[in-house]
Amino acid sequence: QVQLVESGGGLVQAGGSLRLSCAASGSTSGISGMGWYRQAPGKQRDLVAFISIGGTTNYADSVKGRFTISSISRDNAKNTVFLQMNSLKPEDTAVYYCSANRWGYDNWGQGNQVTVSA
Known about the structure:
By secondary structure, the chain is an all-beta fold. The protein is built from no helices and 11 strands. It is globular and about 40 Å long.
């Protein structure tokens, strides 16, 4: 079983930045893709950014132009994934979840609140 622990969320003003971190532990061998999702109140959980084990990245349309190609990064040796969020907007307010796919199964972190004030 994989345990994911997120950190780095909090309150920031619009236009500000936050960096999220997620560390995987437990049965980490076989972890492939890792990503960040978010869920706002009353809405479904949506992908924010994804990174493959080889470093290929993918971003939601809602963050393109504000997040760079290197906004999501990972350290495979430490089983850690990061998300650098810049130019944050109030609509980015949500609970952010880290995910790690291992042998086709998605493992999830507990979620980390990010609040962007206007």
